[in-house]
Amino acid sequence: MEKLQEKTLLLKAKKGNNKAFVELLQNEKLKLYKMAYIYMKNENDALDVVQETIARAYSNIHTVKEDRYFATWLMRILINTAIEMLRKNQKIVPILEQQSEQIQVSSYDERLDLLQAIEQLEEKYKTVILLKYYRDLSTKDIADLLDCPEGTVKTNVHRGIQQLKKYFNKEGEHYGEQY
């Protein structure tokens, strides 16, 4: 979708045009579902998160400050909704096994170990690791999405990686060596 068209649709949606709002969502729906599934690891829960995100976005469309940040604004609503639902349901956040293929790991067992390690991270580290390495977002994009300074994102990525290293060092001093 062209930027001018997106800007026009956003203006119409802000004025209450339902069709314009639905059209805006067409480019984002797959991204929303994938991110929701990463958090929820369950199709029904992911769909619930997407549905709630769309409802919240529709109710608050007037709060989008800059047109170019619509997708970022929408994704932030989704992440907040997913975290809120997980806390409400007191679920552990597992990660999609299929998503691990984007990280270059040499064997299936190592991918499973990496997934298990990421699941152990604190929420703030897990979120930035997922966004950076699974969604390929830049530090700036993550900062915009999470509404925090870039330095905070860099720090959380660094600390998340450090925790992953500690996890693997604890699992075995020579992790990954062939015996």
TrEMBL record:
SUPFAM superfamilies: Sigma2 domain of RNA polymerase sigma factors (SSF88946), Sigma3 and sigma4 domains of RNA polymerase sigma factors (SSF88659). It holds the Pfam family Sigma70_r4_2. Keywords: DNA-binding, Sigma factor, Transcription, Transcription regulation. One of its GO terms (molecular function) is DNA binding. InterPro entries: RNA_pol_sigma-70-like (IPR039425), RNA_pol_sigma-70_dom (IPR014284), RNA_pol_sigma-V (IPR014300), RNA_pol_sigma70_ECF_CS (IPR000838), RNA_pol_sigma70_r2 (IPR007627), RNA_pol_sigma70_r4_t2 (IPR013249), RNA_pol_sigma_r2 (IPR013325), RNA_pol_sigma_r3/r4-like (IPR013324). GO terms for biological process: DNA-templated transcription initiation; response to stress. Gene3D superfamilies: 1.10.1740.10, Winged helix-like DNA-binding domain superfamily/Winged helix DNA-binding domain (1.10.10.10). The keyword Transcription regulation applies. Residues 112-164 form the RNA polymerase sigma factor 70 region 4 type domain. Residues 31-91 form the RNA polymerase sigma-70 region domain. Belongs to the sigma-70 factor family. ECF subfamily. This is RNA polymerase sigma factor. The lineage of its organism: Bacteria, Bacillati, Bacillota, Bacilli, Bacillales.
